[in-house]
Amino acid sequence: MTIWAKVPVVTMFFRPLLLLAALGLAFATAAEARTTDLLVRGLTEAQALYRTTTTSLRANRPAEAEAALKALVALWDETVTATIAAPPAMAARVSLFAEQMEGGRARLKRAAEALSQGRTDGALDELAPLKRDWITLKLSLGLYGLVECLDESAQALDALMVHKRQAPDLTRAEARVDIIARTAVYRYALRRCEPFAAADVIGDGDFRRQAEAIGAALDVIDSAIRLRDPALLDRVLTDLKTFDAQLTQRFGG
Fold first, then answer.
1. pLDDT at 20 over 70
2. Which end of the chain is more exposed for a tag (fewer CB within 10 A), N or C?
């Protein structure tokens, strides 16, 4: 018998091994997809529950806050357990990924304990850092959504608010140009958030009303510059800060 006659036997011998390897690869790929989805979904839903919890706490609705926080604790506990046991590939981008996830879990449990004791302020204090922590975590993972976009637009507004902290001399062209430029950056930053909002958010009357109020206020800045009216500029900047805070709390955490 020649060596070529043995080839089918060898092939038959290795075929089950190749099949097992293929199945193993498929299983690993499926497991990776599952933990990736769990992490992305967990972070997105956690931000939504965070908004509900903190909004309810500030509005003195403890029962609603407690229900939202309970759901948030359970969601994050599930997310942490699954993604630490089998970290998705994207987790490699985050330094001390497991420690960050566990830190959020511990903070949420302390917030729940504070709320169960009737310490609303204590619960808010524990929750407060999570907004920034989760935004930073999502950006490190390469994720970006409405919360992150609204956070960036709020930072753009903060750059404009320098002209409220120190009243500009509107008779100077340099001051007027700077205000116009910062206003344009904020307007653009806010507009680019719309595609990241879910269809039901974009269609939400509250979102549209607040976004339109901000747009109208930005138009008043042009009038204040044209009239060289620092008092009008100061008033409209105050309104802008209020509108932006409402929008961010309602849709950005």
1. no
2. N
Domains of the chain from N-terminus onward = 30-141 (1.20.120.660), 146-252 (1.20.120)
The answer, yes or no, to whether residue 84 has pLDDT greater than 90, is yes
- Chain-centre distance for alpha carbon 200: 17
Tens digit of each residue's pLDDT (9 = 90 or more) over 208-238: 888 899 999 999 999 999 999 999 999 999 9
Instruction: Give whole-number Cα distances, 31 to 26, 38, 224, in Å.
Output: 9, 10, 58
d(CA 227, CA 152): 30
Report whether 42 contacts 79 (CB < 8 A): yes
Q: What is the SS3 assignment for 44-101? A: HHHHHHHHHHHHHHHCCCHHHHHHHHHHHHHHHHHHHHHHHHCCCHHHHHCCCHHHHH
Q: Which residues of 226-246 are buried (b: 16+ CB within 10 A; e: fewer)?
A: eeeebebbeebbeebbebbee
Which residues touch 51 (CB under 8 Å, ≥6 apart)? 249, 250, 251, 252, 253
* Cα 46 to chain centroid, rounded: 9
User: Are the C-beta atoms of residues 244 and 214 closer than 8 Å to each other?
Assistant: yes
Q: What is the pTM of this model?
A: 0.81
The Cβ-side half-sphere exposure at 9, using a 13 Å CA radius, reads 6
Q: Name the residue among 186, 166, 171 with its Cα closest to residue 225.
A: 171
